[in-house]
Structures are given as structure tokens and as C-alpha cells.
Amino acid sequence: MSTSLSALALALLLPAAAQTPAAAQTAAxxxxxxxxxxxxxxxxxxxxxxxxxxxxxxxxxxxNEDDEAHTASAADKSFDSAGLDTHDTWTHRFTxxxxxxxxxxxxxxxxGVVIVTDPAKATP
Length: 124
Known about the structure:
Elements: H1 2-25, E1 37-43, E2 46-48, E3 51-55, E4 59-64, E5 73-74, E6 89-93, E7 98-104, E8 107-117
């Protein structure tokens, strides 16, 4: 009887053992990082930080902490917050790589830059 139990156990284990190498060869899906969220403060008639580096898919929220209205308007017209009153916020998600210069259209000396890189196109 122990011989037949051993044979049965061996018969049950062999198919599982034969499948293990194939399962081990299956590639795991690539890990992608979740989009990040950044904040640019508008205070004392300046953008802080004035330059920010992010990745495609990330978003930036502009927060007006001044007593005056401001905008965050891209020089290439790719985004425009319209007027932001005191304590207003506006968020933009950057979907393409590039260097995006922006200004406050109400106070054109206020300038900033968002530098967006695509991590999928980065060289190792």
C-alpha cells in the first residue's frame, strides 16, 4: 500500500514540478511610477519655485497666496489658468515633454518654467 501511495504522490507532484520552470520564465509586468503632484505658490508677486522639474503625467497646482489676482499662462499657449483670486487654486496635468515658460499676464515680470521629461524615453 505504501508503494501505491508513493506512486500516487509522485504522479501528483511531477506535473506541478514540470510547470514550475515555465511559470518562472514568465516576465513580470514593468513597474510604472504613479504620477506625482507638485505645488507652485504665488506669493509676493513671484512664483515659488520659479523653475520646477517634473515627468510627463505629473500635475502642478498653482496656489495664489497674494492679495492680488494672478494667472499662470504658458508662453506657447498650452495652458492658462485664467484669473486666480486670493486663495484660488488651479491644476494642470503635463502630458508631453518640453520646457514650458509661463508668466502672470496681469504682472508680466512674474515668470516661471516647468521642465517636463518623459521617463520612458530616458536612457539608462
